[in-house]
Specification:
The protein is α/β, with parallel strands linked by helices and about 190 residues long. The two termini are about 15 Å apart. About 30% of the residues lie in helices and about 15% in strands. Helix 3 runs parallel beside helix 6. Strands 5-4-1-6-7-8 form a six-stranded parallel sheet. Strands 2-3 form a two-stranded antiparallel ribbon. The radius of gyration is 17 Å and the shape is globular.
């Protein structure tokens, strides 16, 4: 069976970070308002310590939703491919929370994707080391390395990547899980 690397955040599920930022700031930001990869960049620098204390008491995955069609398409893929969820867990500005985040990610995957065995969860920030025939991620740099098919999952932070940049990286933009289904399950 061919192997597929699937990113977790903004590919399988999303909304948790934005929900917590809005809760903390008392705002109503939408994904379309975000212009950076890191949603926490919306937090004013003078409130960052307060934000970290607030965030450290939360499980971001309690506020996430699975993306449309993700479960159904991954379940179909699991019958024809070997699926690996490859996800980073270390926070750029909050490394002490990383151990809790790893646990929270594991539990979310375990509870929500019963057809992917826990042995196929890989927690790393360096996705270039992963050798799979197919890679699916929302961050173009995470598609580096060997893969026959590289699918850039459309997200708020990658809208400005041009078709020329995608071509140079050998990547194809997908608009959601139905696009992935069309590409990988062509029967």
């Amino acid at each position: 069976m061919k192997k597929i690397m699937i990113d977790m955040d903004d590919v399988i599920c999303d909304g948790g970070f934005l929900s917590l930022v809005n809760q903390f700031l008392g705002t109503s930001y939408q994904k379309e308002d975000i212009k950076t990869y890191y949603i926490q960049d919306l937090i004013p620098k003078e409130r960052y310590k307060e934000w970290s204390e607030f965030f450290n008491t939360k499980n971001v995955y309690d506020y996430c939703e699975m993306l449309p069609n993700a479960y159904e398409v991954m379940e179909k893929l699991s019958k024809e491919y070997e699926l690996y969820v490859v996800t980073a867990y270390i926070f750029r500005d909050n490394e002490e929370y990383s151990a809790s985040n790893l646990k929270n990610k594991f539990i979310y995957l375990y509870d929500n994707l019963p057809f992917i065995p826990p042995q196929n969860y890989i927690f790393t920030s360096n996705k270039e080391i992963i050798n799979c025939e197919i890679k699916i991620d929302d961050k173009l740099s995470n598609l580096e390395g060997n893969a026959e098919i590289k699918l850039l999952f459309d997200a708020y932070h990658n809208k400005d990547i041009t078709n020329e940049e995608l071509k140079q990286k050998g990547a194809i933009r997908v608009d959601g899980w139905k696009d992935i289904e069309k590409i990988l399950l062509q029967n």
